[in-house]
């Protein structure tokens, strides 16, 4: 693996826990509007009990679909849904405070559960995920987006592409009976098998094993994702997504240029913060804000920084959406710039159940939950949703990388872009427009 020094690193992980809660709910009396297409998913094959030995991986015999057949329009719909979901979650998450998370990691984990949702639970989850697609098309679209984002697949140029990893893992109760089509979706569209575990006897040890797996997948950036007591003896299923990104700026900031500079917080106070200087990017000015994009080596990924005008942060954050970011992207143009950006590091743990309930999927966390697509004859409820994310933004990148600059016709004096007040930022994949990470920085 490429060696990094004082670079840019992101790790995040999301875990969903389902437990049994009594008899299964009765099927909905009326099918959902797209039920004929969805009915092909399940309830027509024998169910599959997890009878392997503890620790053994059990999965569908179907390999992951490397050509899932999603159309560009379907992929764009999945990306837009992910972005809108992330924007809504940002507004609900710790308002007025620094926050950083991965809407994509959360969307991946929820989508795996969504594969087994039915009735009103399915409808609510679809709305929260912002999915404009049926279940039959949502999962292939998510798979296609994931495959399109792997470094080296987007035709990027200019240096070594970032390290980028998206991994899904599931842990299922030994002897529990799962629907085969649910296992098929996990295998075909998310590349996830299922480890057989005995939650009833080893809940604490299993929690430690899952946390260790997450730590390894995120290069030790995410530790103790699942808190003490987070895995219980009555746990039926754990679904975990881990995402890791580490990249070098296409044009690094000057190591000698970093110095303390004033930063005005939301409450009007001024603090001195280590501020990097240099870099190049594309710039646009909008109504009440400015924005700049900063490429990573390979130019397949980039950071978007949205800098609201003084006194207009809440207004601009309220406008954040897929359409808003698309307008920003369409108006970016190359400039010769002197970019000033705070050097910062954040780690966030988000309590997601209140936010997800507020956004419109309360049934998933109650006795009304219908996850009969995961298992028949047993009622399951989503008992916990854990998410942690870490980001470190510094001057350089890979230790041996050569900086690559955007070819522009610069004026003799660079334009100043000083990020000296609260800002929003996103890490995205350029070709698909998929937002991997989203953050708010308001106070050093």
Walk me through this protein's architecture:
- With 444 residues, the chain is α+β, with helices and mostly antiparallel strands.
- The chain has 2 domains: 8-247 and 346-391, Antithrombin, Chain I, domain 2 (2-Layer Sandwich), CATH 3.30.497; 259-341 and 402-441, Roll (Alpha-1-antitrypsin, domain 1).
- Helix content is 26%, strand content 30%.
- It has a 7-stranded mixed β-sheet with strand order 3-7-5-8-1-17-16, sandwiched between helices. A 7-stranded antiparallel β-sheet has the order 4-20-19-13-12-11-14.
- A hairpin with a 5-residue loop joins strand 19 and strand 20 (435-441).
- The longest helix has 21 residues, at 72-92.
- The radius of gyration is 22 Å and the shape is globular.
- The protein starts with 7 loop residues before the first strand and ends with a strand.
- Mean pLDDT is 83; it is low at 1-7, 22-46 and 397-412.
């Amino acid at each position: 693996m490429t060696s990094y020094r004082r670079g840019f690193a992101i790790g995040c992980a999301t875990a969903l826990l389902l437990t049994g809660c009594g008899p299964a709910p009765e099927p909905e009396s009326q099918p959902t509007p797209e039920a004929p297409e969805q009915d092909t998913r399940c309830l027509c094959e024998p169910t599959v009990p997890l009878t392997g030995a503890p620790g053994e991986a059990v999965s569908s015999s179907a390999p992951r679909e490397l050509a899932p057949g999603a159309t560009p329009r379907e992929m764009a719909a999945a990306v837009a849904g992910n972005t809108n979901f992330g924007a809504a979650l940002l507004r609900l998450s710790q308002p007025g405070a620094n926050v950083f998370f991965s809407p994509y990691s959360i969307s991946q984990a929820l989508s795996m559960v969504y594969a087994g949702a039915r009735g009103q639970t399915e409808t609510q989850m679809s709305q929260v995920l912002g999915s404009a697609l049926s279940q039959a098309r949502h999962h292939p679209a998510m798979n296609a987006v994931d495959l399109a984002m792997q470094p080296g697949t987007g035709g990027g140029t200019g240096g070594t592409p970032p390290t980028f990893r998206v991994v899904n893992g599931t842990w299922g109760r030994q002897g529990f009976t799962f629907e085969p089509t649910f296992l098929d979706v996990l295998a075909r569209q998310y590349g996830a098998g299922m480890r057989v575990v005995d939650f009833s006897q080893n809940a604490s040890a299993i929690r430690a094993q899952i946390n260790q797996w997450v730590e390894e997948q995120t290069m030790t950036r995410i530790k103790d994702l699942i808190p003490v007591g987070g895995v219980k003896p009555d746990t039926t299923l754990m679904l975990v997504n881990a995402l890791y990104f580490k990249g070098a700026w296409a044009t690094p900031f000057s190591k000698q240029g970093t110095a303390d500079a004033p930063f005005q917080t939301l409450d009007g106070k001024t603090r001195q913060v280590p501020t990097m200087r240099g870099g190049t990017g594309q710039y646009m000015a909008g109504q009440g804000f400015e924005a700049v994009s900063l490429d990573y080596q390979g130019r397949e990924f980039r950071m978007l920084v949205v800098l609201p005008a003084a006194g207009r942060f809440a207004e601009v954050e309220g406008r954040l959406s897929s359409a808003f970011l698309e307008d920003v992207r369409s108006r970016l143009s190359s400039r010769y710039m002197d970019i000033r950006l705070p050097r910062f590091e954040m780690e966030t743990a988000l309590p997601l159940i209140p936010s997800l309930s507020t956004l419109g999927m309360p049934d998933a966390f109650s006795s009304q939950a219908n996850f009969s697509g995961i298992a028949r004859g047993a009622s399951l409820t989503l008992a916990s949703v854990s998410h942690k994310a870490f980001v470190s933004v510094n001057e350089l990148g890979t230790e041996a990388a050569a900086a690559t600059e955007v070819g522009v016709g610069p004026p003799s004096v660079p334009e100043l872009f000083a990020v000296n007040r609260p800002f929003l930022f996103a890490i995205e994949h350029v070709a698909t427009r998929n937002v991997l990470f989203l953050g708010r920085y308001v106070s050093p």
